[in-house]
Amino acid sequence: MASNKTSSAGEGQTSKRKQDVPADERAKNKKVTKYCCVPQCTNYAVEGMRFHKFPQDPKTRQAWIVALKMGKEVTDHDWVCAGHFLQSDYLPQG
Asked: Nearest 5°: phi and psi at 36?
């Protein structure tokens, strides 16, 4: 259970409350964290972790959904982490 206590800023420091910061500034500073949408996967974006969007091609997209055993509707905002791919799944670079 969350505590109702609040921490106060140290002497000489000020803290900003959400309502004290303009909405456009909050939106600019907000960081979006990518996380893997595959069931039972807990990976999220950290440096070095690659993420992939579902393909737009309906046949390829459906192949991914089946292979990943999604069990839920996939949206254009869903990401899949590199942990679900083999090195051979990637095209050679060069």
From this structure: -75, 130
Number of structural domains in the chain: 1
- 3-state SS of 10-55 is CCCCCCCCHHHCCHHHHHHHCCCCCEECCCCCCCECCCCCCEEECC
3-state secondary structure (DSSP) of residue 88: helix
**Rounded Cα–Cα distance for residues 30 and 8 (Å):** 23
C-alpha to C-alpha distance for 40 and 83, rounded to whole angstroms: 12
Full pLDDT tens readout for the chain, 94 residues: 443 444 344 445 444 454 565 666 655 555 668 899 999 999 988 888 899 999 999 999 999 999 999 998 999 999 999 999 999 998 888 7
Q: For the whole model, what pTM was predicted?
A: 0.62
Q: Which residue range is the domain that position 57 belongs to?
A: 20-86
